[in-house]
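Good morning C.,

I know you're traveling, so I'll keep this short. The sequence:
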Amino acid sequence: AGNTLSHAEGSVVGSLEYAIGPLGAKLIMVLGHTKCGAMMGATQTMLNAQKAAEGGAPAQRTTLDKLLHGLAPVAQQAQAELAPGASAEEIAAHVVKVNVF
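The tokens, ready to paste straight into the viewer:
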């Protein structure tokens, strides 16, 4: 589900280690794209958690929510860098930039 390399585990990290180790890759490219569904999902997960915290109700935690929760710090940073009241779409668009750069 998108660029969710928020923990140093799993096949993505193993693949990168193999590429730079045994294969000797000299360049690894980290790419992002606009209108990324994973970044929108991470943004919505973060916003839902904020609403749940304000209302005292626990946020629902599906397996996908748990995966996207790993991107919450990036979504929070993007939200903080924008004007108060930014829409979910504006935040998600900025999350793509923050997550890659």
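Safe travels,
E.
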